[in-house]
Amino acid sequence: MFRKVICVLAMMLFITFNIDIVSASDSTQSTSYTYTYSINGKLEIAQDAYLPTMLYLDLGLKEPQDLYIYENKMYIADKGNKRIVVVNLDTSEIEVIGEGILEEPVGVSVDRDERIYVADFKKSVVYRFSKDGALEFTFERPKTPNFGKSESFKPKKVAHADDGGVYIVSEGTTAGIIHLSGNGDFLGYFASNEVYVSILQKLQDIFLTEAQKRVFLRRTPPAFGNIFRGYDGLVYTVNKGSGVNVKKHSINGLNMLKRTKTSIKLEDPADLYVCEDGRIYVLQGNGLITELTNEGNLICTFGGNSEKTDRVGLFEVPRGIAVDKNDNVYVLDEQKGLIQVFTPTPIQLNIHKAIDKYNNGLYSESKKLWEEVLRFNNTSFLAHLYMGRIYMQEMNYREALEHFKIAGVKDEYSAAFWEIRYIWLQEHLGKVLVVFLCLFIVGNVIKAVNKKRNLVRLVKTWKERALRHKLIFDIVNLKYALYHPIDNAYDVKVGKRGSILAATIIYTMLFILLVLRQTASGYIFSVDVKEYSVINTLIAYVLTIGLFIVCNYLVGLIHDGNGTLRSLYIGTAYSFAPAIMLMPFVILLSNVATINESFFISGVTDIIICWCAVNIFLMIAEMHEYEFSKAISNVLVTLFCMAVVILAASMFYLFLRQVWNFVVELVMEVLIRAKTY
Known about the structure:
Blueprint: H1 2-16, E1 22-23, E2 34-37, E3 43-46, E4 50-56, E5 64-70, E6 73-78, E7 83-88, E8 94-97, E9 105-110, E10 116-120, E11 125-129, E12 135-139, E13 155-160, E14 166-170, E15 177-180, E16 186-190, H2 199-207, H3 210-216, E17 224-229, E18 235-239, E19 242-244, E20 246-249, E21 266-267, E22 269-274, E23 280-284, E24 288-292, E25 298-303, E26 318-323, E27 329-333, E28 338-344, H4 346-359, H5 363-376, H6 381-393, H7 397-407, H8 410-453, H9 457-467, H10 470-476, H11 478-483, H12 485-493, H13 500-519, H14 534-558, H15 565-575, H16 577-590, H17 598-624, H18 628-676
Antiparallel strand pairs: 1-4, 2-3, 4-28, 5-6, 6-7, 7-8, 9-10, 10-11, 11-12, 13-14, 14-15, 15-16, 17-18, 18-20, 19-21, 22-23, 23-24, 24-25, 26-27, 27-28
Helix pairs in contact: 4-5, 5-6, 6-7, 7-8, 10-13, 12-15, 12-17, 13-15, 13-16, 14-15, 14-18, 15-17, 16-17, 17-18
């Protein structure tokens, strides 16, 4: 009799704790757009990556706060009902953990032994339950001095650690993530956030006392918003707020994810989940779901908010995200108390397989899958990036170079270029040395013969005749100005060298070199030609030089300077002699240099800039006949005047823009009224 009663109760429990899963839609299209990075460096609409396919409606959730999936079980922090709901994804059976113990569960995590960790915000503790739901341990506020007397302990999110310990994101704690061992000992703060200090704040540091800084400068690092312990044993976090990135922390807490071209700024991230193969999913407060590679490159983003239209696939208050072994994405909606399931499309599954096979060294299989992706979307940044990497593994560096160039990844382009250059040098170094040796011998033979028969007499004669022409002489004078800036400035002042026309030609040469430096340098050192505007460069160039000359002339007038507008115009042109003489070599060199040699390119460029600046200073001192200190004062006042003029022009531009907008709105209003009447 007793056994029959037990069997009946067991059947009742089984029926009670089984749920029905509702199919969301039979549609083959998503209810939101999928975006991904294209080779143009912009987010563009792509083929649907995920489709909303299922809903978990009847779980009886009330203000659910967190979601976690391990193996075939889904764990839900059901805050309103003070429990953890566990759903078996294979059988749809559910069980409940923590009833009578939990007060306000807001975070949940599960380790490899299926022990369940729950952050209870109201009780200010973290619980660890066994696989069967029995309470094993309670993590309380550390009492050791190194925790800090004033630090709060209000667990919001939790991630499991080794040995049954926990990583805790606590409300109001800015020192970092609280790390506790399996027996509750405080092991320290993990992965503290840095405080960003602007230039203005650095200036304030100079002038304010320590007491004033404590009162006026309340600098606190940004707080962590959520945490996840990946299958790789690393800790992943996201900060609160907008414009933040996912962080992948090493064992010493440093962020391992570099900011790549496709790093995306997240808006108020609510939760994150990391798959076994390292892909990262982030659920944002606006309902967008962002999927990243294990390196932080964007795979896609989809979803959205149901504020304007309430449809399947959109969320009211998205709170938690998790992914099962079939790459189905589960999203918890706090307001609706339900879970939506998104199933990846065949194209997205191909991308997952392609990344996974590449990460596991199966390059040929990965290559076929990426080729398939490119057939559907030949502007995919990710496909070109991985195709380049696969060709690098196959030592087909030229193909790799092409794909890296299309993707616009200069670091990896540089690596492929280095290999091509190395192979070329191995094959042609002997020929190059022979050519240089022949040139050396020929040069010496010509030199020897010329001593006897004066073969270059005609060239010298032509050169002397050309230099008699004033314009040619003034332009060739750049070489003299390079080494003798003071003497050259004096000659310009007394009218011995230089002219307005020659200076204008020099300015034109300098502008051409500036344009070539940005567009004709090697791919690694040049800008994107598609985005480059010669007109904008010309406007900035003319305004900067023109403003400097005029401001310096006016400042010179006030401070008894003797320089004229004409002499300053010509003298400034000659001051750029180092740039005109050396920049062509920098441009040529940049075409054969890699990122490893970028220090040399940037170093030479810095030397050229400093050389020109010194020449300008010496020219000003000579033109105005200033001593050193007065010349310094003149330059500083000139720069200050330029800043004031730029600021005034900006304000005037804003004023004109507002006036224009007012006039446009007024006209539109009049036209609308006229149509009405």
